[in-house]
Amino acid sequence: MNNHEIDYKLYGDDMQFVEVELDPQETVIAEAGSLMMMDDQVQMETIFGDGSKGSQSGLMGKLLGAGKRVLTGESLFMTTFTNVGTGKKHVSFASPYPGKIIPMDLSQINGKLICQKDAFLAAAKGVSVGIEFQRKIGTGFFGGEGFIMQKLEGNGMAFVHAGGTIHRRELQAGETLRVDTGCLVAMTGSVEYNIEFVGGVKTALFGGEGLFFATLRGPGTVWIQSLPFSRLASRIFAAAPQRGGSKGEGSIAGGLFDLLGGDRK
Known about the structure:
Helix content: 10-25%
CATH superfamily: Mitochondrial biogenesis AIM24
CATH topology: Double-stranded beta-helix
Largest sheet: 6 strands, antiparallel
Number of helices: 5
CATH class: Alpha Beta
Strand content: 35-45%
Structural class: alpha+beta
């Protein structure tokens, strides 16, 4: 694939944004809603699919590619940003929540990256954004947060976002790592992965963790996040005040009151 060669610069620490530098006629693709700012003479256009060469093979090819994106919870459309001027121009994309932006040069990882369905932020035009199906159909329906992964292919730059602190782990051949499905951010295409059910009824009900682990087997590289968005959102929701403050939200008594079907009105 012929990907556009883009330059970039990261800003910030916990709420980062990435500034992409575009030469004339260079293009970057991004998810809708990720734009922060852009220079004059950067043309924004909504396209069907990801704009890669593989997605241009007729209407059915475009529909298939777009349909795969729907399975990952993303929009049918993506946005392109093209420098239509004569000099260098800049366009910036912001993190959706506290965490880090990870630059990925696909040409250095054999042209393929598998990542969480909501991790993709932006990429050079020509990078194909698809899905990676798990081989076992059971994990597709019951595999928790990580059962459908996005697949980025090409030889250009791509940017993914993850929450909290990011840990990069190099797995040797045959080395195995078990990760909470929500904490897995990305992995190279050489890593074998599967979703395993956590055994034991007590562990499943009272262990405080999810019911599934992602089992990763090397060789390859994996990226792990310390704060998945789902975990952050659940904590915020749990701490948010509910209607009817007289019943003591957040207290043990209030929780038991709700559990027994009490009416807080």
